[in-house]
Specification:
140 residues, flat, mainly alpha, disordered N terminus
Length: 140
């Protein structure tokens, strides 16, 4: 498949600073969430008043395990979103910003305003999401 680089959707240039600011704000929010989650995860159980004796009730152990698992899962999602935002910030001043990474067509301005870290048009992103779900289903 040959990818043709076309001019991004007309009008995107006038929104670039607004998009950049939104991306930077969201990046800062995610970094703050990560720092907060890291602080919670780093807190020793005994510092939180947890009973560390061998007689600790299994429900308490399960609750703590659930919370730590939730933090790890949330962190993965935050890391994924952070990478997408940083990639968008790196692309914003390049000629490829606003172009689909798969097909090379312009990503509509409306999509870029709603999801400024988008690197694919709706059609290509839908196809990618299906592949990811199919792959995840095969692993289950």
């Amino acid at each position: 498949m040959t990818t043709t680089v076309t001019r991004p959707t007309e009008g995107l240039d006038r929104y670039k600073e607004s998009i950049r600011m939104r991306l930077e704000e969201r990046r800062d929010e995610i970094l703050a969430e990560i720092a907060q989650d890291d602080a919670i995860a780093a807190t020793a159980l005994d510092e939180r008043g947890e009973d560390l004796t061998p007689s600790q009730h299994p429900a308490d152990v399960a609750s703590d395990l659930y919370e730590r698992t939730r933090l790890v899962t949330e962190r993965r999602g935050l890391d994924h979103r952070l990478v997408a935002i940083e990639d968008a910030l790196a692309r914003i001043d390049t000629p490829g910003f606003g172009l689909c990474a798969d097909c090379g067509d312009s990503i509509p301005v409306a999509r870029m305003l709603v999801r400024p870290q988008a690197s694919r048009c709706v059609e290509c992103q839908t196809r990618e999401d299906r592949l990811v779900r199919r792959h995840a289903g095969a692993r289950a």
